């Protein structure tokens, strides 16, 4: 559906009903009943891959030894992820759809292979009520690791406004010096709202501010604005980078449009000139690396594309009865499983992530600088989640599940 065209008559009436319904919804996006034509067959667990469309930019800070330049490279990588995260699904026409709401334990696994080496992604739905997705992305060549989790809290006022809850932690080793403790960067997530709803052509605009602060003392403050917000161009971004010892001394700044190009300058924005320009990053001419995902038939039964395969096929055919039936099977099996667990006094064992019982050192030291709760907002995300290397090892050691195990999982967890 293009932004210039209005929805077809049948779609148009269900769209009006949808608009009416969102004006009074309860803040849980997964409970939104969207009309069929706005349903996506992609699950939210897949969105974790958006952090690493450019593995070379992701791994670049670990190849640099100067702390100030490392912090700037982290900012560059972060800004480069925005286009994929927030605009890749609807850049031109405004057709942001409603993603599939992952079931507890759903997985999305993949890897990128390019000049940065192998970079692996593990994404897992670690909570269903409230919905929260955790992820780990590791570049094997440099040891750079990103881990995090996120949930969304939505409110309605003029449009859908989404506050992202959660954070990410980037661990960046020093090049050729294993004795030096890696740096950690705490990354907060921007708020967003949906534009174009009234025209039946939704797309994401970012707003407010997010931060990246590091154990070496560098903090980036990133501000987002859109058309109609302040006075700016659609998808405007500006950022400053300072050291905590002197927050008035802006070491670098960046300015531009996150879907197009942005430039990095030395010093504060007021002195930006060709002389202070360091480089310009052009999102449009920076092709990303394709994530590779195993063929569906080789995937673990809880992997997203395999588990939702029948639902996705029904969405593609526009067969809404089949969508309802197939989704219903998974939802029913999941409800049964939760009831059984409750009865037996058990909880679902997450495969790759564990809930942190102790206060997290990264959060304790860095969260106060950027207004994050030191408990990682675990009460709103079903827990404070961290990647569990021991679990990853035991899964690797155990190897692939047998045909009997696959059939059991499909029956008990997915109702297949
Ligand atoms: C709000 C959103 C779901 C959440 C998406 C998140 C925040 C997920 C984590 C990623 O790292 C970044 C990200 C990008 C886009 C966010 C989605 C945009 C729209 C979607 C809503 C649930 C859909 C609302 C339905 C409709 C029809 C209005 O588009």
Automatic annotation (TrEMBL):
Molecular function per GO: oxysterol binding
Taxonomic lineage: Eukaryota, Fungi, Dikarya, Ascomycota, Pezizomycotina
Top-rank taxon, per record: Eukaryota
Gene Ontology cellular-component annotations: cytosol; membrane
Family membership: Belongs to the OSBP family.
Identification of the protein by name: Probable KES1 - involved in ergosterol biosynthesis
Xref: SUPFAM superfamilies: Oxysterol-binding protein-like
Annotated GO biological process: intermembrane lipid transfer
Xref: InterPro entries: OSBP_sf, Oxysterol-bd, Oxysterol-bd_CS
Species: Cephalotrichum gorgonifer
